[in-house]
Amino acid sequence: MAETQDAATTRTGSADAAIPFSREVGVRLRAVRRQRRLSLDDVERSSGGRWSASAIGAYERGFRNLSLPRLRELAEFYDVPMSMLLGEIDLRDGGDDRGQGKLVLDLVALEKHDAAGPILRYARSIVLDRGDWNGRVLSVRRDDVRALSSMLHQSESDLLEKLASWGAVVPSSGPLAGSEAAVS
Fold this sequence. Notes:
Layout: H1 2-12, H2 18-35, H3 40-46, H4 53-61, H5 68-78, H6 82-86, E1 102-106, H7 107-110, H8 117-130, E2 137-141, H9 142-151, H10 156-165, E3 169-170
Antiparallel strand pairs: 1-2, 1-3
Helix pairs in contact: 2-4, 3-4, 9-10
């Protein structure tokens, strides 16, 4: 019996490897749900019963494994990239960004504009990665502004002007504050 278990462990890696990964995915699922200010019952109701509160709770605790199609459905429901739930993308640059410039976004103001959907999705991925759950404002780095500009096919200054016109720029003292920021 021990030889069979050892052989299975050798073929599939550590016998316990799935447990921690399921928990990691679960932690991310819970973080997304809480960031959306949804209870388990809220998810069940707003999904039309597609996911029961007990199933979501089991996924979040890592007690139940998610299939990839199910994970994709949950990612779509929560409006986040599936790769984020899997922990494959890390938007942190890990470096010291003092002096590189930051822009503080008003997430509540962005929610009022349909055209801000891609920006909100990107911002939410940063919120999830940082574990910053206040849900109202988010400080983004210069690299994030560049990435958003590229994604939206517009210059940084045009993006900053659009954000300002939506009332989504929180006044700050950083070099990216306001639409007059220079593009370097």
